Each structure stands twice: as structure tokens, then as C-alpha cells.
Recover the amino acids of this structure.
């Protein structure tokens, strides 16, 4: 039983690690765990149950990640602009991009107060 927890924890952490490269850690971790569970269930000889387990777990992860993003937007914690993991900009360029993004967010927040005045 303890070994099962350790193995599933390791698979989940591997999925989180992979997900940080893609900028969607929760959804990626759930898809990796879903693939692992689907593989385990398919060893029992029931392909439909394996596909169903994969689908349910993966969709749960995508749903949770979507809810997390939506709540962040509603609470005003807009995420930084997403870039592909393959592009490696310099740190100075990245700082300029973040500063421009922050200015844009500040301008968006200030617009409703200007109209109301």
C-alpha cells in the first residue's frame, strides 16, 4: 500500500515537472497520472475501463486547471503572458516584456475609473 502511494506520488510529481515546462502543471500532471492508471487498468484485460479511467482523470485535471485560471482572472490575478517553452528570451528582454504587460494590466484596471469620473 505504501509502495502504491510512493509510485503514484512519483508519477504525479513527474507530471508536475513536465507541466511546468508547458505552463499547465496541474492539467499535465493529471494526464500523466491518467495514462499511468489507464495502463494499470488495461493490464486487467478490460480496455473500456482503462479508456474510461484515463478519460475521467484527464478531464478532471483539465477542468481543475480551467477553474484555477478562471478564479485567478476573477480575483484580478491575471497570469503573465504565456510563451512557448521552446523560446528562450534573454532576461533583460523578459523583464521588458513583463513590465509592458504590467503597464497594460494597470491601464485596463484604470479605464473604468476614468469613465466613471
Amino acid at each position: 500500500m505504501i509502495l502504491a502511494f510512493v509510485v503514484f506520488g512519483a508519477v504525479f510529481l513527474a507530471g508536475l515537472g513536465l507541466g511546468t515546462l508547458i505552463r499547465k502543471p496541474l492539467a499535465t500532471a493529471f494526464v500523466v497520472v491518467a495514462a499511468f492508471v489507464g495502463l494499470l487498468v488495461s493490464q486487467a484485460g478490460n480496455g473500456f475501463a482503462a479508456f474510461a479511467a484515463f478519460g475521467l482523470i484527464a478531464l478532471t485535471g483539465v477542468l481543475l486547471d480551467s477553474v484555477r485560471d478562471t478564479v485567478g482572472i476573477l480575483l484580478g490575478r491575471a497570469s503573465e503572458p504565456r510563451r512557448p517553452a521552446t523560446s528562450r528570451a534573454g532576461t533583460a528582454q523578459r523583464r521588458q516584456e513583463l513590465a509592458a504587460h504590467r503597464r497594460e494590466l494597470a491601464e485596463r484596471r484604470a479605464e473604468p475609473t476614468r469613465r466613471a469620473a
